[in-house]
Amino acid sequence: MSTQAGLPPMVQAAGVSKWFGDLVAVSDVSFSIGAGVTALLGPNGAGKSTMLRMMCGLAKPSNGSVTVLGKEPRSDVAVLGRIGMAPQQESLLDHLSGQEFVELAANLHHLQRPAESARQAIQTVELDPDDPRRLSTYSKGMRQRIKLAQAIVHDPLVIALDEPLTGLDPRQRREMISLFHRLGSEGKCVIVSSHVLDEVERFGSRVLVMAQGRLAAEGDFREIRNLMDDRPLRISIRTDQPRELAIALLDRGVISGCRLEGTDGVVVDTNDAAAFRRAVAPAARDQDASLRELRPLDDDLESVFRYLVTQ
Amino acid sequence: MNLAVYRVILRTQLSPARLLVLAGLSGVAILLAFTARASDDTVEVATRTIANFGINIFAAFIALALGSAALGNLVEDRTLVYLWLRPVSRHSIATAAMAAVVTVVVPILVVVMTVAAVITGVGELVAATAVATALAAFAYSGIFVALGLRFKRSLLIGLGYIAIWELLMSRLGDWFARLSIRSYPMSILSDATDVSMRLADRSTLASYIVPLAVGLAGLLYTSWSLTRTEID
Fold first, then answer.
1. Is residue A64 part of a domain?
2. Partner of A259 at 20 to 30 A CA spacing, among A33, A107, A306, B54?
């Protein structure tokens, strides 16, 4: 993956593998990441969290190496001062208040004014630093935001966020994504993991796709999206004129095969999802057919990633 | 030692349930002291009471309950990550955890058991009780803080260790007794009152040095373990 021209990568993975007994969580993954927002996309169990944990020194690679700002975070405690992480788990130090929790992080990062820095970080994630309640009383969305606050309180250069949008409402998601972009535009390396394709689309243009522990694809989001659109796709169409619509789509060359199902259904195969999407409505209009339903039969994220892994 | 980590762990030490157990065990200690005072052979009964209850049970179990939870709870509820992710040495985290446990366990044990020794009316037992319980608490704390970090079911493993090794195996012979922590503080009590007790025949020097060494070894193992452990 390209980084900013002339600048060394901020995070670099070289042939990284991680296994737990017989289970291979990450297999021979290499990439470089520079400043800006990078999405780490993959289904649950793809190895994203393990990869992030290795980037932050929480786990040691079984093979290969991970460096952050040129240092190995596992063995070099000092580099942890430049890394901020919001782990995936919901658990927090529940006996503390939000301010105490973030202030603890600020203290451990040896900040000059820990209380002030903590207040600022908490306000950045739109929480109230004067809220005296313990973290045990926080909602899921509040917990996500306080995790983010402790990750950014020391103004780190590399920020790793593991599924940070889970539990947030749409407005909070927008705010958080805009915060990620702001941090990225300030020259920080923001790595955000997610298993939701549409969510990643809004993170930015750079994507690392992980599946089954491997790096399945990397690059610009649009390239990845195109690659996903290029895969063979089976779609079920409900219409009042299935035969005519199927013929029209075959004539347009956007489907490679079809099978009628009952009196109002047809299942089509396409190798170009984008072209199919563009063609289906005009074809239905030309045939005076009414489209009742379009349903991809294998469009779950797992199947998308499986396809990418085979490419 | 890192003071911020120390304060965080210290705040988790005294839960209402643990306070209740502490109060219960303290009550039993005082009750046993009055019983010893009323006995015919006060010196012997008092010495055995302080040894058998104060060291073998009170010190061991309270150090287990608090020590295994110090880092163990953070591992179990997956919050150790919030201490580990910071640019602080692993040794300072281990020291802070050990200090938080010792800050609670040692004063409580020493105060309660010394009061119990005073109640028995055996003067020569008072200072020895204070020293012996403090050393026992320190040694057990070192072991159980390390155990809490290393094993998920540390409380059960610790109970097994106390019951099987400290209370049973140590009786099998001198070699086993030397590997039992309780034999050293018991020897301090035995030296003070001249009451002969099984296991309590360690040298005076060893009685003081070994518990300190065990506690420090536990601390060093915890530090080493923190640098190697994978944080969830």
1. yes
2. A306
Low-confidence ranges of chain B (pLDDT < 70): none
Nearest CA in chain B to A75: B227
pLDDT digits (tens, 9 = 90+) for A77-95: 999 999 999 999 989 999 9
Nearest by CB to A85, from B85, B87, B88: name it: B85
Containing structural domain, residue A299: 231-310
Contact A88, A163 (CB under 8 A): yes
DSSP, collapsed to helix, strand or coil, labels residue B83 as helix
Q: Higher pLDDT residue, A226 or A145?
A: A145
Task: Report the chain A residue with the minimal C-alpha distance to residue B2.
Answer: A108
Structural domain includes residue A114: yes
ipTM computed for the complex: 0.82
Residues A102, A213, single domain; the answer is yes
- Mean pLDDT in chain A? 87
pLDDT of residue B66: 93
Contact A150 B87 (CB under 8 A): no
Three-state DSSP state, A300: coil
For chain A, the domain total comes to 2
Res A310: pLDDT = 61
Q: Find the mean pLDDT for residues A44-68.
A: 93
DSSP reduced 3-state for A49: helix
CA distance A289 to chain B (A): 55
Distance between CA atoms of residues A151 and A145, nearest Å? 10
Residue A135 in contact with partner chain B when CB distance is under 8 A: no
Q: Chain B within 8 Å of A69 (Cβ-Cβ)?
A: no
Minimum distance, in Å, between the CA of residue B11 and any CA atom of chain A: 8
Nearest CA in chain B to A148: B82
d(CA B97, CA A93): 15
Closest chain A residue by Cα to residue B82: A105
Cβ of residue A89 closer than 8 Å to a chain B Cβ: yes
Q: Are the C-beta atoms of A42 and A211 separated by less than 8 Å?
A: yes
Work out the pLDDT band at A2, boundaries 50, 70, 90.
very low
Using alpha carbons, select from A97, A135, A103 the residue that is nearest to residue A118: A103
Q: Which of A56, A78, A95 sits opposite B11 (nearest CB)?
A: A95
- The reported pTM is 0.81
Question: What integer is the mean pLDDT of A22-28?
Answer: 90
Q: Which positions in chain B touch A98 (Cβ < 8 Å)?
A: none
Is A303 in the same domain as A237? Answer: yes
Query: Cβ of A109 under 8 Å from any chain B Cβ?
Result: yes
Q: Which of B11, B79, B85 sits opposite A56 (nearest CB)?
A: B85
* B10 Cβ under 8 Å from any chain A Cβ: no
Same-domain status, A93 and A213: yes
- Write out the two tokens for A238: 């409900």
- If phi > 0 it is left, if psi is from -120 to 50 it is alpha, else beta; for residue A196 that is beta
At B92, which amino acid appears?
A: S
- Co-location of A192 and A212 in the same domain: yes
Please report, for the domain that includes residue A264, its CATH number.
Answer: 3.30.70.100
Residue A204 lies in a domain: yes
The residue of chain B with its CA nearest to that of A101 is B82
